[in-house]
Amino acid sequence: MRRALLSVAVVALVGAGAAWWLTAPDNLPASALDGVTGDAGRGQVLFAAAGCGSCHIAPGAEETDSPVLSGGRRFATQFGTFVAPNISPSPQGIGDWSDYQVVNAVMRGVDDEGRHLYPAFPWNAYNKATVQDVADIVAYIRTLPPSDAGSLPHELSFPFDIRQSLGGWKLLFEHRDWVLQGDLTPEQERGRYLVEALGHCGECHTPRNALGGLDRSAWLAGAPDPAGKGRVPNITPAGLDWSEDDIVTMLQSGFTPDYDVVGGEMAQVVRNTAQLSDEDRAAIAAYLKAVPPVESTAPQPGAGDSTAEEGTASDEGDS
C-alpha cells in the first residue's frame, strides 16, 4: 500500500510539473530587440492602426493629439468584466517596464512579472506584427503624458481568475499564422497585415467558441457583441457587398454607400483608420474583398451597429 501511494504521489507530481511546464509563458527571445530602435514618429500612425487609444483612454476623456492612456474603460463579457489598465509612461503604467517587456506583452501576452495576460487584450493578433512596428508604437507611447491613475483589477469569477490556466488556453487557441493564405498581391498582403495583425479586426468580427477561442472557419463572418448588445456584423463578401471604393470611403470618413454614418464602436475605428494613408485604406479594402465569403445572420454595418475592430479589450498592461 505504501508503494502504491508513493507511486501515485510521484505520478501526480510529474503530472503537475508537466502541466506547469506546458502552461508556462512563451516569451520572445531575449535577442528579439537586438538592432531594433523604436521610431516615435512612425509609431504614431501605427498606434492608430493598432487602436491602442480606443481602449486605454479613460472613459469620457477628451481625445487629443497627445492622449492620456490612464485606462479604466470596462469591457463586459460572459467571463466577467475586464478593465483596461494604465499604459501611460508613468510608474503606475509602463514607465518602469523595459522596451522588451512591453513588446513581449504585446506579442506574447506576458506581463513584466511573467504572468499570462488575458486574451481580452488582442495579443493573439499582435503576435503577427513585426517587432519593429511594435517597438515604434512603444517609442510613441513613451512620448505621451504620464498618468498616476492606478490600474483597476479585472472582475472575474472562478475559474477564469486563474492566470496560469491561460497557458492552456494559449496551447489550444493561440494562432501565429495568417488566416488568409495563398497567392496574394502585395496590396492584399499589406491589407492582411493591417486587418489580421495591427487592426485585429477578427477579435470582434469573428465568432468564438465556449472558451473564447476564435472560430477561424467563420473568419470575419460576424459575432454576438460580447457585452450582449446585438451583433458585430459580417464583413466577408457574403455580408458586405460594398465596392472597394465604398470601403475606403467609410474607413476615411465614416460615410456608407447608403448615405449613412457608422456609429457605436465603429466610429472610433474610423477615427483611427482616417489617420492611415490612402494606400493602407485601399489595402484593407482589397483584403476584405479577398477573404472567403461566409454566410451568417449578422446585420450589415450601419449607423447603429455595435462594431468594434479595435478589439474587445486592448489591455497592454495588466490584462
What do you see in this structure?
With 319 residues, the protein is mainly alpha-helical. It has two domains: 134 residues, no CATH class; 105 residues, Cytochrome Bc1 Complex, Chain D, domain 2, CATH 1.10.760. It is 37% helix and 4% strand. The chain contains twelve helices and five strands. It has a three-stranded antiparallel β-sheet with strand order 1-2-3, with no helix packed on it. A hairpin with a 6-residue loop joins strand 4 and strand 5. It is globular, with a radius of gyration of 20 Å. The protein starts with a helix and ends in a 29-residue tail after the last helix. It comes from Rubellimicrobium mesophilum DSM 19309. Keywords: Heme, Iron, Metal-binding.
